[in-house]
Amino acid sequence: MFKRIKNRILRYLLIAIYFIIILICAIQLNFLWLFGYSPTKKDIVMPSVNISTELYTADSVLIGRYFDEDRNPIPFDSIPKSVTSALIATEDVRFYSHNGVDFFGLGSGIISTLKGDKRGASTITQQLAKNLYRTRYNKAGGLLTRLPVAGLVVTKFKEWMTAYKLEQRYSKNQILEMYLNTVSFSNNAYGIETAAKRYFSKGANQLNQNEAAVLIGMLKGTTLYNPIRNPENAFVRKNTVLSQMYKGGFLKKEEYDNLVKEKIVLNTNSQDLNAGGDSYLRAAVAKWLEKWAEDNNYDIYTDGLKIYTTINSKLQKHAEEAVAKQMLELQQRLNNTWEGQEPWRDLSGKVIPNFLDNLAKKTPYYAFLSKKYANTPDSISYFLNKKKKIEVYNWKDGSRIEKDMSTMDSLKYYAMMLNAGMMSMDPYSGEIKAWVGGINHQYFKYDHVMQAKRQAGSTFKPFVYLAALESGMSPCDKITDKPVTIKIDKGDSVEIWEPKNADWNFSYREMSLRHAMARSINSVTVQLTDMVTPAKVVDAAHRCGITSKLNPVASVGLGPNDVSVFEMVNGYSTMMNHGERVTPLLVSKIEDHDGNVIATFQAERKQVVDKQDAWLMTYMLRGGMEEPGGTSQGLWEWDLFDKENEIGGKTGTSSEYVDGWYMGVTKDLVTGVWVGCDERSIHFKNSHSGEGSRTALPIFGVYMESVYKDKQLGYTQGKFPSPTVEITKSYKCETPRYSDPEPDQSDSTQVEEPVDEGFIGPEEEGAEHPVERNHTEGADSGTSSEGSSSLEEVGSQN
């Protein structure tokens, strides 16, 4: 075909053109998989960019991000001229003169490289093509790209074609906007807006000339010129950018002379810098939205959504501060309790043999040593006990602290760590207002609000009294506090169970149901359970919102079953909400990146308890403060009772003071608090130091005092809501005050009824168990095991 053309030059030119056309078609079609993926017309029209999703409180405070690449795109008019000028002067001074590929710049770059001055020749548009479509990575690579020279030619050619397509589709300003929103600035900061916040704690539109030069200078090498890691290199590079701006006419001589003398002043203390960091709340929302995202084809890590939670930022802050303040005191108390002793004990108080050794065997470091020193256990022991400098969690102030510790030391240190879970909820709307999953999410990933399930102790007793009311009883009905004998049919034998009160004494007094619940009398609770049947108690608890498997045995009302803080708050909220159960709500709405609402969420509602019985239960919960000897009266220590304020609640402690609970209710909020070690075999020794009224109740007290003092919140003191139905049962029954002191009903008891462990509900499917925390040499962290306390001897305390 080409032989007919007599002019040799023209013939060769046509052959070249023909070859280029064939090459372009082959590359576009990825002929025989030789060239790899090339961006399609759809890609060019709608570039695929991962955008971080933002997590907000109900009052629009940013509290977290979800991202594969932390990016928050902004429009061109929000990018200051200082940034675009620095970019053009440094990366592509002929940006407004070419159509995507600068052949003049390419030629001068080759000449400079041959002279020993290596200089890039890629335009901003080419770099954008590379950033947007990964032209040198992933699926872009074909078979030819595996060949060094051929691969470079093919990828460069694809960049040219993609750059040309971009120039045809977008204006120059749009290209600059896309480039500055996609480029990486190290430290997982993608885009100029995120980078400005990461390094200077301000929006991109607030960057000054010097700061803009620092960020643009990083693009030549985000690690080499990182102002945090390499401040000297960053300073030199910053001045190079300023020099290019001066040469390009973007700066006057006087401006340039002043700017090159300015030091780099970073500001990495903004709260927003940590907003993308992990937290209990962030993890809880992610789990909350798993099914929604799957069902609606969204990816919260890449789709740039705005998720609004029901959390109130001020309530959350007060909750976190209350937990932090009290846990400091409690941790010191526990450490003092076991100073110089081994704290891991069985139910008889004996030291558990090989406790730390068994923990060590669950760590990745032990697996590594076992593989390396398979036949030399002494070597494994040597390295496990070899001291080294490691960073551990400092419980005194929540920071990291460097200590000389062995792996075994670290295991002991973390096993002794107390933890906490706290949730506060509006019982009427179902909105969760505060969520504190633990003391520090960086070191303790296990969420003690939703994931952890622990023995509820006496906080479970109200469900017994609710079942009693539903059976026809009233708060004024009386039962005698006396020894109880329960016969348990074991099929081939009958077992006798005789539960004891907290102080192992019985008053032999008749007492109203309200007084008995307020004092947390075990003998009365067991008698009521026997009267209404354990199955009725389980049914009442499940209707109110307890979802865990409950074993319907005689001791069920004393709280031997494992439940979560989340469930308990829901259960108590049902009583406060006139017997209507509302599904706790953590997310209220979701917007897309453009601000369009794509989903809203509302609590599911169901009337599950008679309104009269529900109101009577709120009246009985107030008994903890109002009845003589009520277990909530430790709350008098805090400023909570102006304006005839009413507070109800229930303390709880499991056997051996392993778990401390407090469930507190006000006219506006229901709040649950749990305190304990993840290792159930480590706990306080006595009621004075370890019962719920002395571990969990103070957290509630500090929290509510700060809530009431924060006038901007609008939570006021006052009485509980009046009943919405006629109350036909007698309830105004004054408890006599005896002249002789009433027996001490401290928050502890020992229940000796055997319980079949098979009925106890498992941990939430998919939950990260505490024992799975990482353990690596030089970076040991805490462990925990959930099975240390046997349920063969079930404990419940007030």
Automatic annotation (TrEMBL):
Pfam family, one: Transpeptidase
Pathway the protein takes part in: Cell wall biogenesis; peptidoglycan biosynthesis
Biased composition (Basic and acidic residues): 731-740, 767-778
Gene Ontology terms, MF aspect: penicillin binding; peptidoglycan glycosyltransferase activity; serine-type D-Ala-D-Ala carboxypeptidase activity
Predominant localisation class: membrane
Keywords: Carboxypeptidase, Cell membrane, Cell shape, Cell wall biogenesis/degradation, Glycosyltransferase, Hydrolase, Membrane, Multifunctional enzyme, Peptidoglycan synthesis, Protease, Transferase, Transmembrane, Transmembrane helix
GO BP annotations, alphabetical order: cell wall organization; peptidoglycan biosynthetic process; proteolysis; regulation of cell shape
Compartment(s) where it occurs, according to its Swiss-Prot or TrEMBL record: Cell membrane
Biased composition (Low complexity): 779-798
CC terms in the record's Gene Ontology section: outer membrane-bounded periplasmic space; plasma membrane
Penicillin-binding protein transpeptidase domain span: 423-665
Domain of life: Bacteria
Similarity field: In the N-terminal section; belongs to the glycosyltransferase 51 family. In the C-terminal section; belongs to the transpeptidase family.
Protein name in UniProt: Transglycosylase domain-containing protein
Species for this entry: Sphingobacterium paramultivorum
